[in-house]
Amino acid sequence: MPLIGVARSPWTVDQLRARAKDSLERAGGFEPGAFENLAGLLHYVSGDYGAPETYGHIRKALGDAQRPLFYMAVPPSVFPVVTRALAASGCAEGARVMVEKPFGRDLASAQELNSTLLEHFSESAIFRIDHFLGKEPVQNITYTRFANPLLEPIWNRDHIRGIQITMAEDFGIKDRGGFYEEAGAIRDVVQNHLFQILASLAMDPPGGGIYDAYRDEKARLLKAVRPLDPGHVVRGQYRGYRSATGVAPNSTVETYVALRLFIDNWRWAGVPVHIRAGKELGVTSTEVFVELKRPPRETFGEIVPLASSHVRMRISPDVVIGIGMRVKAPGDQMVGKDVELTVTSRPGDAKPPYQRLFADAINGNPELFARQDGVEASWRIVDPVLGNATPLYAYEPGTWGPEETEQLIGADGPWIDPAPPQGI
Fold first, then answer.
1. Residue 282's CB: how many other CB atoms inside 10 A?
2. Sequence-distant (≥ 6) Cβ neighbours of residue 282 within 8 angstroms
3. Which string of DSSP letters, residue by residue, matches 211-276?
4. Taking the CA atoms of the chain, what radius of gyration do you get in angstroms?
5. Which tens digits make up the pLDDT trace of 91-115?
6. DSSP three-state, residue 375
7. Which residues pair with 287 in a beta bridge?
8. CATH 3.40.50.720 occupies which residues in the chain?
């Protein structure tokens, strides 16, 4: 299987091979024999994305190869240009295309981009990648829910008080100022990554045993989410962001967002879902916290924290599933303490998500890729709050975002910050 790199850089194939070797050596995965085989498969085409001759060179490099997979790690604005040029040069015949997120900038642009792709590729040949779907811990959410009879009977509005999803990073934008100015936290991680986690967490059981059964249920869940009310969104920007390279001195782009949303179906009616994501926060961790309802009466007359009973699912940096319970404290009195039973705890992904996703795309398996109806449902949710639809608040690096975030969660709180499990 030939591997053809295409970029503007005026490299030679020897430079590409040297780059691959250096990358493998730094990652600790270099094996001389295996690399010799890999290097023989590498090819390189240098050219501008808008120049027809670039695609002629790609066609020549493909030779007699069948069913190519084109992975477009290019700016979204270039997707239509590349797609049309691939078709005009004959490269698209029998091919598949893998498109990186963000898939559009809003609902209208996502629909327009999809129309362009469908002019030259069938829906079954389009793979919209969201690498979170290839993460083992994200797949583990779905598995844990439906494989354990302990959870599924209580996974509804009758037993769950609220859901929190947190994606925290203790670093800033680094050298991605130009990208972040175009994206912001909502477009960068909420509309795609965190909504995919929500769909895995809240969807109904898939049926039929076919690939699209999972995507059917995820899309159905996202379509049931109510479009965001600007009053249910808090945007923040960490102090120092505007001094980063590529950032406008008066930028109003959010590096933090917290939101409250509701799912309008029978399983989740009335259950608040709170999502927050941001940079320069207290820790780096992505976690789901499902708060169970307390019994209708506290038998022992205690004042028990609302979050005492819960299910915690951590996605990174490690994988943890914990169940919060109360147990009796030693002594003569019938009083208790909160503990967390750690069901599983192990290092993060054994297989990098892109490794899994590239293999699935090559084999034509769409299960772990976003489908257009789900993409459009996600944009429909956030469309009302994109841009400067809500105020922007400053926050200090190392904190948990603007103070207004506490007002947002209000009586549904408190926010549960990611922390190591307690054990028992």
1. 16
2. 168, 170, 398, 399, 400, 417
3. HHHHHHHHHHHHHTBPPPPGGGEEEEEETTGGGSTT--TT----SEEEEEE-B-STTTTT--EEEE
4. 24
5. 998 999 999 877 888 999 999 989 9
6. helix
7. 166, 314
8. 3-130
Residue 38 — pLDDT band, cuts 50, 70, 90?
A: very high
CATH class of 132-353+371-412: alpha beta
Distance of alpha carbon 354 from alpha carbon 194, whole angstroms: 18
193 is catalytic: yes
Structure tokens at 308: 């005492």
Are 341 and 322 spatial neighbours (Cβ–Cβ below 8 Å)? Answer: yes
pLDDT tens digits along 271-298: 999 999 999 999 999 999 999 998 888 7
The CA angle 225-317-30, to the nearest 5 degrees, is 120
* CA–CA distances in Å: residue 29 to residues 22, 33, 35, 170: 10, 12, 10, 28
- Those residues whose C-beta lies under 8 Å from the C-beta of residue 413, and which sit 6 or more positions away, are 406
Confidence of residue 422 (pLDDT cuts 50, 70, 90): very low
Do 273 and 232 touch, CB atoms closer than 8 A?
no
Query: Was domain 3-130 assigned CATH 3.40.50.970?
Result: no
What tens digit of pLDDT does each residue of 240-282 get?
A: 999 999 999 999 999 999 999 999 999 999 999 999 999 999 9
User: Of 43, 57, 193, 310, which residue is the catalytic one?
Assistant: 193
Measured distance CA(30)–CA(362) in Å, rounded: 24
The structure's pTM equals 0.89
- In the DSSP assignment, the letter for residue 156 is S
Q: Give yes or no for a contact between 70 and 63, defined as CB atoms under 8 angstroms apart.
A: no
Q: What is the pLDDT of residue 421?
A: 46
